[in-house]
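This week, work through this protein record:
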Amino acid sequence: MEFNKLPMNSKKLLDEIVKAENPTQLLCERFENSSSKEDEELRSLIKELCQSEYIRIPMWADNKPYHVVVNNSARTYDKQLAEYEEEKRTKRGTVYIGTVNDQSVKIGNGNKISNSNIAGNIENHSDSAPSDVKKTFYKKHPVICSFLVSLVAGIVLLFTFWSNIVKLIEGVF
């Protein structure tokens, strides 16, 4: 399972739950002493911890947790966070630029490259327009042009000679 870093308020609640002798009693007391806004926030924090699978609350009674199960991932959260931060820190300096004989080439972490031509010669392709060519009005404003064409087509269809064509078609069938 992928590690998800918790927001500070969720982590604070998780730390309280892990350190508590009786996590069920801790949460019940928090619910009893909370205002409606604090109650709503507490429920959202508990929901987040349950979705992240740090805790489980299989039973509720009187709209409070009746039984709280603290998973091992909650007890080892700080260690997982440290590993995640370390991995993030080491990945930040590494850039993968391609493969040479099926071995990744890494640039970063103190490696030095000198007298190298990584990009090679960059050529203009036909799909990229040169900067000195002016774009036509249609290429600059395709939506406006589409609207104007639709408007002209609608006006042409309003002319009376179309009724004669419709009668001709109906006569054939």
